[in-house]
Amino acid sequence: MSHQSLTLHPPGGPAIAGVEAGPADGPAVILLAGWPQTLHAWRHMLPRLAAAGWRVIALDPPGLGDSDPLPAGHAYDTATVADVLAAAVASLGVETYAVVGHDVGAWIAYAWAVRHPRAVSRLCVAEGAIPGIMPDAAFGIANAARVFQFYFHAVEGLPEVLTEGREHLYFDWFFNAKTRVPSAISPADRAIYAASYRRPGRMSAGFAYYRAVPVSSAQNRAATLPPMPILALGGEASVGGSLHRGLLAQDAVPGAKVSGHVMPGVGHFLPEEDPEGFAVVVLPFLDGAEG
Predict the structure, then answer these.
(1) Each residue of 203-246: pLDDT tens digit?
(2) Full-model pTM
(3) Which of 91, 152, 162, 286 lies deepest, with the highest CB count within 10 Å?
């Protein structure tokens, strides 16, 4: 199914790149990928969601993919980024929508739902260690192979020096270590991701999301769980049910609006490792099923 490119211009914010597919009069769903990826991560989901009647809008967060970075001096905390993206979608005239986020996209999606609950009808967060929500134990030394990047990326200047010109090698480590379906992210896909982040300032923008984690974490801890139905997804060989458990701990009536699902046989990159399985779980949730 074909899609069209978008460039959105939120007032006072950076240009936000996206693609759109599906019927213009269908219910809207926003897709947000994470690091080290771009909206290319949704290539398998766009046609599936569009064929189901959804108006699908996949966006690159500020500084990632083809979206411009935030203005100099602005932090990449998830509240700031969520407000930018909410304004970008409002510029399309779309008033209500579901949001699906993966990885750092899940961090942003959660903050978006917290800050704009009247606009976000449903929230799906997949394989994201949402700051302030994921249990602190997940970031301990025993889990270093999964979470070292939170510490490495937080160091000013060092990851830029060590990864410049080696972006593809660095990304390959993540794609190799965090997948259980080796063919899911092909050499051609990896080249697309590496080329995007090879542009000036793009690695720094990606690291900036991690450098803002303490601020994002404090924002989330000070907020209450957003009111819409929430689905938390994890890969069997990755986050599993820990994100679901973290969200349940925020729920005043446990289980009332938070559902969870662990996808079998996959690692971190759910929409690419098992797009059909991802769609089978997410589509009923978007259509109104609660778990």
Answers:
(1) 999 999 999 999 999 999 999 999 999 999 999 999 999 999 99
(2) 0.97
(3) 286
